[in-house]
Automatic annotation (TrEMBL):
This is Imidazolonepropionase. It comes from Actinorhabdospora filicis. The gene is hutI. GO terms for biological process: L-histidine catabolic process to glutamate and formamide. 4-imidazolone-5-propanoate binds at residues 78, 136, 163, 227, 303. Fe(3+) binds at residues 69, 71, 224, 298. Binds 1 zinc or iron ion per subunit. It catalyses: 4-imidazolone-5-propanoate + H2O = N-formimidoyl-L-glutamate.
Length: 386
């Protein structure tokens, strides 16, 4: 079964080899889907015939967003903590323990329904691939359960047993658990392992121990690094060949150099700075140094409770001074790179037909019209999902 998408005012392939400019734009374009993949892209006037047709009605089409960083297995919310922060309290990692208590107390059905609600919410805003972390269980059974549930929604699951040390627990004993029995219980459901490497969470040596143990079990690595302070996280991520170092808010020159000479993607999470009133990461410094940059939502009930990738694009442009094409690439091809995926994040022949049709003539409108629901429809593997 083939599908021809017509009346595309602007097609952002997100591959500069396939069109104009950094986002590889084709105008007055068409796209053919076959067997869930992009089979053909080109000028509408030359489009081949297909079994079915879908009109983009003069809207822009771009790849579905790849949200490479989200925490969606949790219960409850922390609206009170947010309100207190807006009244002057600082953000602190300790709030994580509030969500841990609520998550442990929730049933599988409650956690599943909550995750489903957020995945659906993200999908309606154009996110066709989402990474989901655990990290709100912090016991062997609860981290295994979190990852087992996450697996129901995505292949991109991440073990984050080392999110914080649970209240009343000895840190050394907890690190040994997170690098041993807890990791063993969660690993069958996890593709990745992550550690919150930060003052108040895990230091560089503790993070190295856990990440090294995870790599030995075949998991890919990612690191919550340099979010609240400068520290060893980014350089550790590069040293261990992690796919991404996430946050990257407080960076030394050595951190930037390390990222620039590596394949580790710097995943920027501007919704966190928006929601915590922290300074934004210096995206220009990273891009100008040649670092691979992604943007992601970090959707979680503490530091950033939004799943909106269009909002992340708007923030990246307006607050981090990324150009609009840079932000669109970071939310699509950049996210795919952060997940080491080559089948998503671009609309070129052979790629999975994950795409967004906008109620706007150009993808520029994602940054130009912040807060406006511009996503008209979403296709995953060529099938309409929103
Ligand atoms: O990525 N930094 C650590 N973890 C999350 C926040 C989790 C929370 O506050 O509940 C983050 O910002
Ligand atoms: Fe996070």
């Amino acid at each position: 079964m083939s599908l021809l998408i017509t009346d595309i005012a602007e097609l952002s392939t997100c591959d500069p080899a396939h069109g104009e400019g950094p986002t590889g734009v084709l105008t007055d374009a068409a796209l053919v889907v076959e067997n869930g993949e992009v089979a053909w892209i080109g000028p509408a006037a030359q489009a081949p015939d297909a079994d079915e047709r879908l009109s983009a009605e003069g809207g822009a089409v771009l790849p579905g967003f790849v949200d490479s960083h989200a925490h969606l297995v949790f219960a409850g919310d922390r609206a009170g903590e947010f309100a207190a922060r807006m009244a002057g309290q600082p953000y602190a990692a300790g709030g994580i323990r509030t969500t841990v208590a609520a998550t442990r107390a929730a049933s599988d059905e409650q956690l599943r329904a909550n995750a489903a609600r957020h995945v659906e919410e993200a999908l309606r805003q154009g996110t066709t691939t989402i990474e989901i972390k655990g990290g709100y269980g912090l016991t062997v059974a609860d981290e295994a359960r979190s990852l087992r549930l996450a697996r129901e929604f995505t292949a991109e699951t991440t073990y984050l047993g080392a999110h914080v040390v649970p209240a009343g627990t000895d840190a050394d004993a907890y690190v040994a658990l997170a690098a041993g029995e807890m990791l063993d219980a969660a690993a069958p459901y996890a593709k990745w392992a992550d550690v919150f490497c930060e003052r108040g969470a895990f230091d560089g040596d503790q993070a190295r121990e856990i990440l090294t143990a995870a790599a030995k079990r075949g998991l890919g690595l990612r690191v919550h690094a340099n979010q609240l302070t400068e520290g060893p996280g980014v350089r550790l991520a590069v040293e261990l060949g992690a796919a991404s170092a996430d946050h990257c808010t407080f960076l030394s020159d050595a951190d930037v150099d390390a990222l620039a000479s590596s394949s580790t993607v710097a995943t920027l999470l501007p919704g966190v700075e928006f929601s915590t009133r922290q300074p934004y990461p210096d995206a220009r410094r990273l891009i100008d140094a040649g670092v691979n940059v992604a943007i992601a939502s970090d959707c979680n009930p503490g530091s950033c409770y939004t799943s909106s990738m269009p909002l992340m694009i708007a923030l990246a442009v307006r607050e981090m001074r990324m150009t609009v094409p840079e932000a669109i690439l970071a939310a699509t091809a950049g996210g795919a790179k952060a997940l080491r995926r080559t089948d998503i994040g671009r609309l070129v022949p052979g790629a999975r037909a994950d795409l967004v049709v906008l109620d706007a003539p150009s993808a520029l409108h994602l940054a130009y019209r912040p807060g406006v629901p511009l996503v008209r429809s979403v296709l995953r593997a060529g099938a309409r999902v929103a």
